[in-house]
Design goal:
This protein is elongated. The chain has helices at residues 3-7, 12-19, 25-39, 46-59, 65-87, 105-120, 125-138, 150-161, 177-189, 195-204, 210-217, 227-233. The chain starts with a helix and ends with a helix. By secondary structure, the protein is mainly alpha-helical. The chain has twelve helices and no strands. The longest helix is centred in the first third of the chain and has 23 residues, at 65-87. The chain has two domains: 3-161, no CATH class; 172-233, no CATH class.
């Protein structure tokens, strides 16, 4: 891996493989969450949205592993009930006896989404991040979530993991009450539209690091786990 490849149009699976052993479980889970957040634009089922929320809360230490196990079981039950009610697929193998084992196309789409959300809360964070990424790129084809593409997931990945070839050391003088309070509010409220304001506050605090200023002023998307916000809040 080189910096040129990292910043270029490489497949996100390659980039994720490079950082997965060099980062924390929290970062990996928040990456899985961020990809699922894109899917939520096409999802209305509460159980799917709740699963992503639970994974995010677990990444930040607000839920325990047993809570994810319960959520995963609820996802599986919901998927089973969905297939049984809407498509007459009654056995645990999800096989429709009237379609010679082939599911209706819409059923395949929704099963894919359920599987992605199940992957999000996988017990191992590296598996969660990898499986969500692979499934989102290779499985979803027909629903209005095609923007879960290599470019979008690559941008999300770089927003969370930054540039591993140019680590930034925080200067304590940047951490004014204004900067910390603003970064905390952005994180808690997912108010990433305030990132340019954070850049201004950093400059007022004497920050002259062009990379962090440019990132805060960039178009994003920014997500929870954004490397710049995490750096200011001391999160890893």
């Amino acid at each position: 891996m080189t910096e040129e490849i990292w910043l270029g149009p490489a497949m996100p699976t390659i980039l994720l493989g490079f950082v997965s052993d060099k980062t924390t479980g929290r970062k990996l889970r928040l990456f899985a969450v961020a990809v699922c957040r894109v899917l939520e634009r096409a999802v209305s089922e509460d159980c799917l949205i709740d699963a992503v929320q639970d994974c995010e809360q677990f990444a930040d230490g607000f839920l325990q592993k047993e809570d994810l196990a319960h959520t995963r079981e609820m996802l599986r039950r919901s998927k089973r009930d969905y297939l049984a009610l809407k498509f007459g697929i009654v056995d645990q193998g999800f096989e429709n006896p009237h379609s010679r084992g082939r599911l209706p196309k819409a059923a395949n789409d929704w099963i894919s989404i359920w599987n992605i959300h199940e992957s999000c809360i996988a017990p191992e964070p590296r598996n969660a991040a990898r499986d969500v990424l692979w499934r989102s790129i290779s499985t979803i084809r027909t629903m209005p979530i095609r923007d879960v593409s290599t470019s979008v997931t690559g941008t999300i990945l770089r927003d969370i993991f930054g540039n591993p070839f140019r680590p930034i050391a925080i200067d304590p003088r940047w951490l004014t009450s204004t900067v910390v309070d603003l970064a905390s509010a952005i994180y808690q409220e997912k108010a990433f539209d305030r990132m340019p304001i954070l850049a201004d506050a950093l400059m007022d605090a004497g920050c002259d690091n062009e990379e962090i200023i440019a990132h805060c002023r960039g178009e994003g998307p920014h997500v929870r786990g954004c490397w710049a916000v995490d750096l200011l809040l001391g999160k890893s």
